[in-house]
Amino acid sequence: MRMFGAGSRPGRPAVHHDRVLTIPNVLTVIRFMGVPLFMWLVLGAREYGWAVLVLALLGGTDWVDGYVARRFDQTSKLGRILDPAADRLALLAVALTLVLADVVQWWYLAALVVPDAILGAASLFYFHSHPDLPVSRVGKLRTALLLIGTPLLVVSKLPLPGADAYLVAAWVFLSLGLAGHWVAGYNYFWAIVRKGRPVRGGRRSEDDGARGIGGVRS
Length: 218
What we know:
About 75% of the residues lie in helices and about 0% in strands. It contains six helices and no strands. The chain has helices spanning about 25-45, 50-70, 75-100, 105-125, 135-155, 165-215. The mean pLDDT is about 85.
């Protein structure tokens, strides 16, 4: 079974519908709603075991909603924006939780935030909104690595045999995920620039034309 693109039908192009209420979109919302539960389990209840289970479910629904969308023709324009946005916000919220719980240092959160902040600024500059770019394979691999490494990191805090091995494995996945995060950010940045230059140039021409018309005196 393929890890990426599972459920897709070869030779059949993906069609992004205008539908909002689809199973993949519902799963995406449920996935993001699990983040506050994870935060409470770690910061409030200190139940790291249950927190790992929640993270596993979050990662599982991330794969399932993509599979359902492709397999049952439920891809949507909203889902194309909502799914990666929910993934990104969930990863940042989980990272913040682990920082507050003294599981990781602040630099880990900063390594996630800085590329996203640059991409957000570039999107607002060129599009005044979301750039609507397809998720790259590097971006998908980055998310998968972080979703594997984070539960392992939490598991390493449990009183289990081999906790040190879990810790090492966690940082192997997280380090590769962070590297992929910056590579994906670099690629997305230049994709935004290439797509955004004509858009911004056209908008500037329209503004100049409007000022020219408004400035004509009879």
